[in-house]
Design the sequence.
């Protein structure tokens, strides 16, 4: 019964016809997150109006008047208790039927790596380093001693698997309609990897690698933001999230491969 009500409510939200100021959604899972956000806002608006009306009622009903004396004895009413129980039940429903399903899907139901684009993203003050494995699908070895201004991820080009690896800075390119698995890490401090239009946000923490995934449904050029205050240059830690058609992505990949061959 509750699951049916949740589905009906989601259909109502899907028919809303406007975006409430949220960024455009280009991900396949974003609608569920947006529905949760809107449901919470509707619920909080209802509580705000309800308690506001109750406050006005109390101000009028219990105002000071001639011939009336205040009763200081405590009074016990059942309605507030039932209202609080109702709020708790509603919040539990939000967790069980709205929040948990999308969280579980994104955290545990990962797509097959063979049919997905797998990339490594390493944050640093103040840039996003995106490491692609190349056409062979294998990441080359990395070494912290090799990190410098021209090699931000410490890629060992002597490793055969690294010959076709591509490293870009602040340019995250993906093909539309294909699952993308990100292995997220950081070099120095905590950063917040945030793709507003893909409804993806996760902390990048030094010494730890977090896997996350998403899939896009529309092409376009969007923003990579840092959602954690990471230093004095935090304001300029901005990248670009480019969703290409498969043909456009293949052409970009070919251009990067040719550039690697020319630089070899």
Sequence:
């Amino acid at each position: 019964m509750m699951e049916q009500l949740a589905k009906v409510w989601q259909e109502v939200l899907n028919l809303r016809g406007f975006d409430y100021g949220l960024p455009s959604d280009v991900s396949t899972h974003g609608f569920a997150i947006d529905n949760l956000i809107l449901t919470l806002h509707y619920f909080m608006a209802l509580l705000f109006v309800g308690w506001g009306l109750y406050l006005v009622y109390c101000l009028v009903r219990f105002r000071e008047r001639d011939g009336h004396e205040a009763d200081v004895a405590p009074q016990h009413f059942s309605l507030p208790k039932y209202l609080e129980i109702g709020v708790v039940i509603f919040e539990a429903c939000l967790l069980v039927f709205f929040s948990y399903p999308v969280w579980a899907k994104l955290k545990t139901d990962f797509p097959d790596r063979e049919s997905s684009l797998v990339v490594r993203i390493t944050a640093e003050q103040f840039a996003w380093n995106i490491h692609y494995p190349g056409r062979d699908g294998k990441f080359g070895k990395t070494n912290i001693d090799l990190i410098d201004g021209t090699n931000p991820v410490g890629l060992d080009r002597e490793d055969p698997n690294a010959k076709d690896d591509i490293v870009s800075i602040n340019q995250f390119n993906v093909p539309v309609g294909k699952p993308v698995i990100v292995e997220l890490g950081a070099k120095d401090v905590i950063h917040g990897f945030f793709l507003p239009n893909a409804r993806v946000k996760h902390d990048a923490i030094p010494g730890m690698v977090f896997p996350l995934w998403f899939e896009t449904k529309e092409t376009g050029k969007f923003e990579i933001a840092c959602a954690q205050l990471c230093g004095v240059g935090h304001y300029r830690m901005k990248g670009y999230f480019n969703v290409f058609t498969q043909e456009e992505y293949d052409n970009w990949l070919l251009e990067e491969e040719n550039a690697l061959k020319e630089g070899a």
Summary: The longest strand covers residues 117-124. The mean pLDDT is 87. DSSP finds four helices and ten strands in the chain.
